[in-house]
Each structure stands twice: as structure tokens, then as C-alpha cells.
Amino acid sequence: MDDARLNEELIDSLFAVRTQVHAELRDLAREAGLTDTQTDVLWRLSRGDEMTARRLADRLQCDASTATSMIDRLEKRGLVRRVPHPTDRRAKVIQLTDEGCALRDRVIRHSTEHSPFARLDRDSRLRLHALLREVAEGPHSAAAPEDHHDEG
Fold first, then answer.
1. pLDDT tens, 106-136?
2. Dihedrals φ, ψ of 57, to 5°?
3. Backbone phi, psi, residue 92, to 5°
4. What b/e readout covers 89-116, taking b as 16+ CB neighbours within 10 angstroms?
5. Which of 17, 22, 23, 94 is the most exposed place for a label (fewest CB within 10 A)?
6. Which of the four pLDDT bands, split at 50, 70 and 90, describes residue 140?
7. Where does 33-83 have alpha helices with state H?
8. Number of Cβ within a 10 Å radius of residue 45
9. Helix/strand/coil (H/E/C) assignment for every residue in the chain
10. Where are the beta strands (DSSP E) in 6-134?
11. Residue 149 gets which letter from DSSP?
């Protein structure tokens, strides 16, 4: 198999895994009254201490107004709150409420229990984890400093 075909098949596999993960979460999201994107927001908020609307928009690859309206809907449901940024008085940090944390924990538990990666043994998952991090943090990580410009 040539390199172009190998890369194509790797990307096909990533799309297939993404589809499996989203399909597993769809029923849980509907039961909780969330959209797929709102579920994604809960997941991403679980990964960091400080997340501004701008940083969230960057992570979701959407414009700031879309992220803001999503945050508004989650805030109305009592799942997130906006608090003052510790160093930038113009910015707000998006935090999960207790109810948001409980739902996020449920999403994470469900995702890990139904993970397509569970088919692999632990050593294989560790190797895959290292490889995926290497790919994710490769040349495209040049945009990473933008992630931090609104934090300080």
C-alpha cells in the first residue's frame, strides 16, 4: 500500500471511530436534552480549569457568536456559569455547575464504558494514545499559542 492510500485509510478509520463515538453518545445526549455539540462542550469543559468563550470557539472550530449562544443555552439549563477571568477583566471563564459536572461525569462514564478503543488491550491503547498525541501535537500545533492568548 502506498503512502497516499495508507493516509487515506487512516483518515477513513478516524472518521469511522468518530461516527461510532457520536452514535454511542447520541441517545444519552437526547435523554439529557442536549445536542451533540452541547455534549461536546461538556466534554471539553471537563478538560481544563479555565475556558473562555473564545477558547471554546477555537476548540469547537466555530465562530465566537456560535459558542456564546451555546454557552447561553447551557447556562439557562443550569449546566454552566460565567465567572470573571482571574487576570483579564474583559473575559469570563466558563465553568461547569454541580449539575453540569454530574452530567459531564455521566457523559464521560458512558463514553469510556462504550469506547471503541475497549476492543484493544491496554498496551495497544497506550501505543495508540502516544501515536495520536504525536499526530495531534505535530506541525498543526502552531495554532496552539492562540489558545492561550486570552488567558493572561
1. 988 888 888 899 899 999 999 999 999 999 8
2. -60, -45
3. -120, 145
4. eebbbbebeeebeebbeebeebeeeeee
5. 23
6. low
7. 36-45, 53-60, 64-76
8. 22
9. CCHHHHHHHHHHHHHHHHHHHHHHHHHHHHHHCCCHHHHHHHHHHCCCCCCCHHHHHHHHCCCHHHHHHHHHHHHHCCCEEEEECCCCCCCEEEEECHHHHHHHHHHHHHHHHCCHHHHCCHHHHHHHHHHHHHHHCCHHHHHHHHHHCCCC
10. 80-84, 92-96
11. T
- 0.85 exceeded by pTM: no
**pLDDT tens string 11-25:** 999 999 989 888 888
Three cell numbers written together for 28: 444519552
Secondary structure element (H or E) that encloses residue 52, with its range: none
Q: Is the Cα dihedral 10, 63, 40, 26 positive or negative? A: negative
Amino acid 44 reads R
